[in-house]
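Hi support team,

I submitted a single chain yesterday and got back a structure, but I'm not sure I'm reading the token output correctly. Could someone confirm the output below corresponds to the sequence I sent? I've pasted both exactly as they appear in my results page.

Thanks,
R.
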Amino acid sequence: VSGTIHKGETASQTALREIIEETDLRPKKMWVVPNINSFYSPEKNHISVLPVFAVQVNAGSRVKISHEHTECKWASKNKAKKMLAWIGQRRSIDIIYEYLTKQKSHLNFVEIKI
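Hi R., thanks for writing in. Yes, this is the structure output for that exact sequence:
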């Protein structure tokens, strides 16, 4: 999920708003993933630097996608990585997976109170 930061919003507030608007999911916890996704737009001659967040929702939560989208799917780590365009996104999946499965990572996620 991604979106544009509205005036007066923080990046994490934008992420929460977009998750709710686009999926109708209600995150219970949120963390900063220690990775930054970036890309260059030649049309705008602009470099975008995007923070990455991870959220937890209640088990059994159902996605209700917004009119902006036509489908959604849950995917394994490897399948999800194949669907992502940017290497930074794929790297974020690996970081989140390592943290969730090993929880020994020296990159402890910073929790954002929501």
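A quick pointer for reading it: The radius of gyration is 15 Å. Let us know if anything else looks off.

Best,
Support desk
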